[in-house]
Amino acid sequence: MARIKYQYNPETLRYEPWRLKGKSLRIRTLVLFSISLVLALGAYSVYTQYVGSIDEIILKQRNHTLKVEWELLQERTRKANAELRTLIEKDDHNYRVILDTDPLQPSERQAGVGGSVKLDTEAFAEFPLVLDNYNSVLQLKRQLDVEVQSYDKLKAMIEEKLEAWASRPAIQPISNKELSKLHLTYGSRFHPIFHKYMSHKGLDFAAPKGTPVYATGDGKVDKAYFSGSYGNVVYINHHYSFETRYAHLSAFAVKEGETVKRGQVIGYVGNTGNSVASHLHYEVLFKGEHVNPINFFQRDLSNKEYQKLIEIGSQQEHPLD
Ligand SMILES: [Zn+2]
């Protein structure tokens, strides 16, 4: 509680509360105002010297934000560059080696792709750091464009290879379950009907009549008809210069012009044409020349099964056609 001052009044003969009046009041008020003003000015001076004006504070905050964003941008650019280097490394030394194709030449990578946004270099003359960073991002974009084009080419190459691999005859035309009953001869053999040595340009798979016969690669049925020597026969064109033939069938499961997939049933084992027992006569041709089909069975055989097939294939007893 504020202490109240008292003063003796000779007129009333009493002590009364003391109050400033007139000149004294004005002087005291002025002194108080001056002290307040000096203190306020002092506080403002200290504030502006050590803290800054409102505009400065806003500018400092913006500056800080820009600095953080700038550092993030530089970090992202560094990471993108590192990832691009990894992609180029895999492109040149992994994928292109697997696909048996040459790596891109440095000149092809440097060529880049146009279409970039032009920067007013004069306006940024006082900010070389900004200009340098812009140019490095631009360079990164060009290299990425080149790499994207390169990967598109690799993708097309892989798709072509996959189609070629799918087209290549690569399985047996008869199930492995019938392997012990196979009867294989390739080359010259004594013909059981014509009774003289004649060239045998396929393999004979002895199997019961009606055993399913499978397409050995993707392709298109070129022929499915009855021939005097082959009996019921299917020709499949596999593209990429491969052709297969399946003879002495008892029945067809496909028609001429039909597209077939590897492993699809195309007919059934029989004894039609120049044949002395139920079996499949199977031929493989590459660029129009006969090749030994035994070289195309590795895909679905173990080493032991493949060795057994080779041994059986070397026997030349009991020709079937
Ligand atoms: Zn044969």
Short description:
The chain is of the alpha+beta class.
What do you see in this structure?
The protein is an alpha+beta fold and 321 residues long. The protein has three domains: 45 residues; 98 residues; 139 residues, Glucose Permease (Domain IIA) (Distorted Sandwich), CATH 2.70.70.10. It is built from five helices and 13 strands. The strands form three sheets. Strands 5, 6, 7, 8, 9, 10, 11, 12 and 13 form a nine-stranded antiparallel beta sheet that branches. It has a two-stranded antiparallel ribbon with strand order 1-2. Strands 3-4 form a two-stranded antiparallel sheet. α2 packs parallel to α4. The longest helix has 45 residues. The radius of gyration is 48 Å and the shape is rod-shaped. It starts with 5 loop residues before the first strand and ends in a 7-residue tail after the last helix. The model has no long low-confidence stretch (mean pLDDT 84). Bound molecules: zinc ion. Zinc ion binds next to loops.
